Amino acid sequence: MSITPASDPSIPNRRDSKAARTEPRRILVLGATSGIAEACIHLWADRGDHLFLVGRQANRLAAVVADARTRGAGYVDSAVVDLDRTEHHADLLAHAINSLGGLDIAYLALGILGDQSKAERNFHDAAHIVHTNYTAPVSLLTWLANYCAQRHSGTLAVLSSVAGERGRKSNYVYGSSKAGLTAFVDGLRNRIDREGVRVMTIKPGPVKTSMTEGMKGRERFADVNKVAATIAKAIDKGQDIVYVPGQWRLIMSVIRAIPERVFKKLNL
Amino acid sequence: MPSAVETSTTAAPDTAPVKPPFESWGRYPVYDADVRSVHWQDQFPRVIDGVHHGALPVGMGRSYGDVCLLKDGTLVKTTGMNRLLGFNPDTGVLTAEAGITLAQILDFAVPRGFFLPVTPGTKYVTLGGAIANDIHGKNHHIAGTFGCHVPQFELVRSDGAHMRCSPTENPDMYSATIGGLGLTGMITWAQLRLKPIVSRKIDYQGIQFHGIDEFLDLTAQSQNIEYTVSWIDVTSTGKNFARGVFMQGDHSKVPNELKPSSEPKLVFPIELPGWVLNGASVGAFNTLFFHKQMKQRVSALQDYEPFFYPLDAVLKWNKMYGKRGLLQFQYAIPWEHAREGTIAILHEVAKSGLASFLAVLKAFGDVPSPGLMSFPKPGITLALDFPIKPEKSFALFDRLAEMTYEFGGRLYPAKDARMTAEQYQAFYPQWQRFARYKDPALTSSFWERVVGGQGFMR
Questions:
Q1: A211–B5: do the CB atoms touch at under 8 Å?
Q2: Average pLDDT in the A30-52 region?
Q3: Which residues of A lie inside 8 Å of B (Cβ-Cβ)?
Q4: Is the pLDDT of residue A46 over 70?
Q5: How far apart are CA B442 and CA B446, in angstroms?
Q6: Are A170 and B41 within 8 A, CB to CB?
Q7: Model pTM score
Q8: Tens digits of residue pLDDT in B326-379
Q9: B71 CB near a chain A CB, below 8 Å?
């Protein structure tokens, strides 16, 4: 496989004096053109962190790279890769860590909402959602977990969703992929937290990003920059499970508590 | 990574058209439209595939009338396309996607010691919108319009053609797009030449004046001061006629902390009933404002936020004007008739008894704009706003538009909801030349109103 950067990593960055106040971290972002990932990249670029950004579409990734570089990221490299192709994962991850000179944080934001109605009718649509949202992250995390566990360091921050807390008729295919991911990440934490590797399950509620464009009630969805700030802070603190915004912890505990004989009749 | 954009724009069970419809800042007129957001440069023109009633790129919807509206058409909202693409601190040239707001640019630029070359009275406008309306600011007499500081941009046409536009590359399209009201194509990215600052502070002076002649004297005395603008009381008559406060300022030369601005916390909570803003309440406001400045002359070191953006501190302040919304009126009258025209129009406004308390007077300078359809010209500009009271305010507006024409002036499309096709075509006789550069798939309710079916290129 050839791993092409979205743009030349050798272009020097202008570091403003403020960005140098903290030691830069080496951060790998998988799914860098997702709305929530991009908002996190802003924050990390502002503080001068070193970034390796992975996305599928070259021109979009190039815009995200340019933005990170302009905002003052200490170093930005990138690779245009379709992460559905799990056979490329090992090469990609080795290349990225090599480029960064190590790894402090891996942020997994790959995922698609998919089309529930199509997925209900056609297994291939359902399988595509499950592959991108579950199988591909499992492949990435398996490699990354072993890499980090060997070195007893690193943070694996994984974007799951509150949709994985209970299957609902409006998006259970997406929800089940996220439920699987949540269980996988929780289990992985149970395995390697004791090895000194932080593993984080991030569960956003609905957020105003391109993924939710045109959805009903979107004006009440969470602001992506606030969500990103919460996530970045949770990563700094090494939290295990984080709901964003925080009220979703309570909302989901209520939704989980509804008896199934009632729940199955609801339109959620 | 597979992006979710394609999948989410198809009809998923949760999706419904975006409501409420896109509003302009004046909240008049109100039109239904199909609003589609773009987050990436490559989404245009694909995003308007199959639209039947035209399309129009829009930003924050901060223009007042209908230049940012398209009745029953498709609005392409660009605010998701807001990335910084590059910055050269040696030249101050910033490259950014067109949906970025001036507020977002300031957040980036101010801590690095840079400021906007030209800013309007709100920072919540997009870069693309600032170019499309070729906006002006308090430094027009020195810096010209916004377009004077845009060395190049990329325009994408509805046929998919990408055109890089600058004074030397596609110069005609460059000129047509600056002030082109979004009708020549979608601006995907643009460059903006920022200017260095060493402090957030503005060296401010406020000076009371009585009458247009005193205003003109102060204008003449302040030619070298970067920012000048006047608030004027248009409700008083007699000895208080045309009293006001001449406000001037320069960026402070004393180095000071360049921290970013905080987020505004106040949101105007409700739509006020129409009767609240009446002659008495606005007259009282104007008297208070005039006398808030007790002395004839006040000097202060002031943060740039209250100096440039006093109204941005209260989000959604337009709701103050109630359900019916507000009308703006802004003219530019050339020097030849500027004095008599301004006095005559102020008399007409005072006589009407219609309240306006955001009345702003300024002298435009003679820096030429690169834009073919730009509004400013050397002379006096006056901006007024009125709550809408259909019979009364529309009649006044029509009268003021006629007077503006008689005095050789013109009106500002970004603040207009009323001018007729005849008036527009007299104000902007070059409109037919402009129409040659218009994108056939794009139009606006404004354009339909002022040009309509008169042989424009569709």
A1: yes
A2: 97
A3: 14, 16, 18, 30-35, 54-57, 59-60, 63-64, 66-67, 69-71, 82-84, 109-117, 132, 170-171, 210-216, 218
A4: yes
A5: 12
A6: no
A7: 0.91
A8: 888 999 999 999 999 999 999 999 888 887 777 899 999 999 999 999 999 999
A9: no
Residue B298 three-state SS: strand
Contacts of B337 (CB under 8 A, 6+ apart): B407, B408, B409
Residue B175 parent element (H or E): helix B171-177
pLDDT band at A2 (very low <50, low <70, confident <90, very high): low
Task: Sort out which chain B residues have CB atoms less than 8 A from A54's CB and list them.
Answer: 1
How far is Cα B342 from Cα B338, in angstroms, rounded to an integer?
A: 6
B5 touching A, CB under 8 A? yes
Residue B274 in this model has a pLDDT that exceeds 80: no
Q: How far apart are CA B303 and CA B315, in angstroms?
A: 19
Residues in A touching B112 (Cβ below 8 Å) = 16
Q: pLDDT tens across B213-255, in order? A: 999 999 999 999 999 999 998 888 888 888 999 999 999 999 9
Contact yes or no for A82 and B7 at CB 8 A: no
- Comparing B3-12, B67-76, B231-240, the range with the smallest average pLDDT is B3-12
Q: Which of B2, B15, B42 is opposite residue A216, by nearest beta carbon?
A: B15
- If you count residue pairs, one on A and one on B, with CB atoms under 8 Å apart, how many are there? 116
Cβ–Cβ gap A16/B112 under 8 Å: yes
B84-124 pLDDT, tens per residue?
Answer: 999 999 999 999 999 999 999 999 999 999 999 999 999 99
- The nearest alpha carbon in chain B to A32 belongs to B1
* Nearest CB neighbour to A56, from listed B3, B15, B16: B3
Does the interface ipTM go beyond 0.90?
Answer: no
Which residues of chain B does A55 touch, with a Cβ-Cβ cutoff of 8 Å?
1
For residue B14, pLDDT over 70 is answered with: no
Helix, strand, coil percent content, chain B, rounded in steps of 5: 30, 25, 45
Question: Is A174 an active-site residue?
Answer: yes
Distance (Å, rounded) from C-alpha B22 to C-alpha A7? 37
DSSP codes of every residue in B401-453 = HHHHHHTT-EE-GGG-S---HHHHHHH-TTHHHHHTTS-TTB--HHHHHHTTT
Q: Smallest Cα–Cα separation from B298: which of B350, B246, B233?
A: B246
What DSSP string runs through B79-137?
TT---EEEEETTTTEEEEETT-BHHHHHHHHGGGTEE-SS--S-S-SBHHHHHHTT---
CA–CA–CA angle B141, B145, B151 (5° rounding): 130
Q: Do A60 and B86 touch (CB under 8 A)?
A: no
**CB-based contact B395:B200 (threshold 8 Å):** no
Alpha-carbon span B86 to B88, nearest angstrom: 7
Q: Across-strand partners of B266?
A: B314
Substitution target in A7, A112, A218 with the highest count of B β-carbons within 10 Å is A112
Which amino acid appears at position A50 of this protein? Answer: H
Catalytic residue among A75, A107, A134, A174: A174
Q: Which helix (H) or strand (E) holds B190?
A: strand B186-193
Q: Is B365 helix (H, G, I), strand (E, B) or coil?
A: coil
- Which residues in chain B are contacts of A111 at CB distance < 8 A? 1, 4
Using alpha carbons, list the distances in angstroms from residue A122 to A115, A126, A181, B153, B318.
10, 7, 22, 44, 49
